[in-house]
Structure to design on (173 residues):
């Protein structure tokens, strides 16, 4: 009878310790999810794109466009145009390094801005705009630019392929 009482108290003690550890782990995990530093969304509900999350956000918005329509986005890049864009359209682009030989491809969001013609190709700009659904060789996100101004070429001008670290949730975006 003495052994059963000690095992029962020992089991209760062990159970309480395990429960406390699980609560701490759950709390820490919840904190990390809601304060994900890759998303850097400010209190004003503007999606801030940085070189670290650029291609992850680009990929996520392209894959689930309907969830992002109407969201405000802020990022920088260079003006890039191809022959079939209108005078008000351009791609706000970055060079994405695709291999160890530092080969790059241009990636970015198609933008629409009435004064786009005032910005020459390869000019670095800072843009704020709203994500809309448009058609350019199929459905795709188009940023309706509300603010655009020149900026200096950043020291981290290159971006890297998506790594799936951008985890969008309704509470973050």
């Amino acid at each position: 009878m003495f052994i059963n009482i000690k095992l029962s108290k020992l089991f209760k003690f062990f159970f309480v310790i395990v429960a406390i550890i699980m609560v701490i782990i759950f709390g820490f995990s919840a904190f990390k999810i809601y304060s994900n530093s890759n998303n850097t969304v400010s209190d004003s509900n503007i999606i801030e794109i940085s070189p670290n999350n650029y291609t992850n956000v680009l990929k996520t918005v392209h894959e689930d466009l309907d969830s992002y329509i109407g969201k405000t986005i802020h990022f920088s890049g260079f003006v890039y145009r191809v022959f079939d864009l209108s005078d008000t359209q351009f791609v706000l682009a970055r060079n994405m390094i695709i291999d160890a030989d530092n080969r790059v491809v241009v990636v970015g969001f198609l933008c629409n801005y009435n004064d786009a013609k005032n910005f020459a190709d390869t000019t670095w700009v800072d843009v704020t705009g709203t994500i809309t659904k448009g058609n350019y060789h199929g459905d795709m996100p188009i940023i309706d630019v509300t603010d655009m101004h020149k900026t200096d070429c950043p020291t981290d001008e290159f971006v890297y392929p998506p790594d799936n670290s951008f985890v969008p949730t309704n509470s973050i975006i």
